[in-house]
Amino acid sequence: MSEPLTVAQALASLPEEERIILTMHFMKSMSANEIAALLGVPERSVSALIVSGKGRISLILGLT
């Protein structure tokens, strides 16, 4: 049986944009508004990527 994936491994498997935004949100405690302003993208886009990224991480780790 294979070893379970770590959160870091699951995060590394995400597309770059999603990985960057999730890292900024969870590791740097930045809001979607702060991330959007820093990256120059709409806040709705950042919020959507946070939600989809969390869902992907949960699936990858087998939490859902």
The count of β-strands is 0
| CATH architecture identity | Orthogonal Bundle
Q: Please tell me the overall pLDDT.
A: 93
User: How far from one another are the termini?
Assistant: 20 Å
- Low-pLDDT parts are none
Shape: elongated
The share of residues in extended strands comes to under 5%
**Class of secondary structure makeup:** mainly alpha
Helix content estimate: 55-70%
- The number of domains: 1
Order of helices and strands: HHHH
CATH topology call: Arc Repressor Mutant, subunit A
Radius of gyration: 12 Å
Characteristic terms for this protein:
Arc Repressor Mutant, subunit A; mainly alpha; 64 residues; 0% strand
Please give a structural write-up.
The chain has 64 residues and is mainly alpha-helical. Helices cover 69% and strands 0% of the residues. The protein has 4 helices and no strands. Helix 2 packs across helix 4 and helix 3 crosses helix 4. The longest helix is centred in the C-terminal third of the chain and has 18 residues. It is elongated, with a radius of gyration of 12 Å.
What's the helix and strand layout?
Layout: H1 7-12, H2 16-27, H3 32-39, H4 43-60
Brief account:
The chain contains four helices and no strands.
